[in-house]
Amino acid sequence: MSTTTPPALKEWPLWEVFVRSKQGLEHKHCGSLHASDAQHALQMARDVYTRRQEGVSIWVVPSATITASEPDDKAELFDPAASKIYRHPTFYVLPDEVGHM
Amino acid sequence: MYTQALDLPPAPEDKGTVRLAHTAPDHAHLQAAFDRRIDADGRIEPQDWMPEAYRKTLVRQISQHAHSEIVGMLPEGNWISRAPSLKRKSILIAKVQDEAGHGLYLYSAAETLGTSRDEMLAALHSGKAKYSSIFNYPTLSWADVGVIGWLVDGAAIMNQIPLCRCSYGPYARAMVRVCKEESFHQRQGYEALLSMMKGTAEQRALVQDAVNRWWWKCLAMFGPPDDQSPNSAQGMRWGIKRISNDELRQKFVDATVPQAELLGVTLPDPDLKWNDARQHYDYGAIDWDEFWATVNGNGPCNKERLATRVKAWNDGQWLRDAALAHARKETQRTMQEAA
Fold first, then answer.
1. Which residue in the set A12, A63, A67 is minimally distant from B323, CB to CB?
2. Is the pTM of this model over 0.90?
3. In chain B, whose CA is at the least distance from the CA of A51?
4. What is d(CA B164, CA B175) in angstroms, rounded to the nearest whole number?
5. Do the chains contact at A51 and B97, CB–CB below 8 Å?
């Protein structure tokens, strides 16, 4: 067991909220909120983000656990795909006789 | 709304953001890239570089907007226990709860700029931060609740719709959510007034009295005239402000006059008349001295509103502490069991 006590927190920690709008669709990020723990965050998310039946399921994730790419790395990460047009079906010109493919 | 956590340097134990190896571009280059994106009507996201003044302006504007939603609960909240029917009471509770929600969306958006919730609340509670002056007027009768929905929320909608296209992504996304819900606020207010206008002469008089008291305050809500609004040009340049104060005010007047006719009330402005050449309604002069007096703390309810808000915050301190203490205890219990 750890002997250190958790640092004194003034604010409730921040959580990211993801809502599944209906069965069959993915959870989508819809915002963030402060709550004391995960259960509390779920209850808060219900009140803050689903007052009009916007969802059928909620995920809450501690904001600090999210790893994000850097905006400065955008070109390095994503631009290489721009030249690879052969990855798209429209790159291939087929005779009309083939019909829908 | 993305999160503050993405915008702050990662704590040692956090994963934070992963930076690929490269050298940081210089300031002029960053500023040029920012300007290009704004000029192309692009969006700025929390992790993007932005000029300090842009960040500061947004923090001020979004937090004031959030404070307005929170303080805005007070004048209407006063009427929950006195609503004339269960139906009206349920509607009013839902509306006031929405205002709380709007405040929370906006605080979250402001936090993405690197300011903490506690800092913003401290600024509100100390009186350093402003909120919309419209909430420093009293709600004297039930008709005021209807008029707030119809006119105050109506004016807010005019202001807020262009903000859905604001250059700062988290603010724009919060405003999309707010605007969707705001339409209910205006419609319920107008409908409540329609019922009163179908009632007794006394009820109709209450509606007219409330309209008389709120009309000019609502016109002032759009802010000073364009030629006396020094920050507007910069806000426009940054894509934070899309439509000028006077333009929004005119849109509001044009939209409201026919609604007032349908309702059967008069708007308290002898100069209000259709101008065929302009294809707009002309309206009289706004009392800006009164507006600034209220902004500067001397409105009828400034002290009361702030005191109520501070008391609510202080009275809730034990609960916030208890929730945190409980969460810590649970964590420790889990760790003990795992050990």
1. A12
2. no
3. B98
4. 5
5. yes
